[in-house]
Write a structure and sequence with these properties.
It is a single chain. The chain has 159 residues and is mostly beta strands. Helices cover 4% and strands 44% of the residues. The strands form 2 sheets. Strands 1-5-10-9-6-11 form a 6-stranded mixed β-sheet, with no helix packed on it. Strand 3 and strand 4 form a beta hairpin.
Amino acid sequence: MHLVVHADQRQFSLRDSGSRLDGSGWTSAAVEFHRIAAEPGGIAIATARSDLVESSVTLLPSPPALSPAAEHVVEADLPVPSGRVVISGPADYPSQEKFFSVPPGLYRARVSYVPAGPPSVDWNDHEYGEHYRYVVEMWPVSVRSEVEVLRQGAAVWDG
């Protein structure tokens, strides 16, 4: 599923439809190294711009190969007991949320930060920061794991 998300406050989230994120996942390690905030109900993905950003969400049967184009790659657990993933920016109204259906269960979500041009929709050319495509690949798992950075991007990356 390809989508454009309003990443207000330089982030957007994926969460189970029965959960809310409270920001508790934004630890110093999450901000400085992970670039995602993992919480019991989902994950928030830091973006390089507070703007419209391109993303994709794909359900896979097993872990994929690492994308050679990705500058930063991180994985975290994403529990989806309802079978419905909500993708939204922090300022989105419920009518603006996007949904992705999966079989209920626990998933591992890999987020790859792939350099890209501006999205094909109107975007804020006055906003600073690089354009990335935020590629989320999910597959079912049976055991919980910690957040893991598979490829660490540059220390200064968001403008």
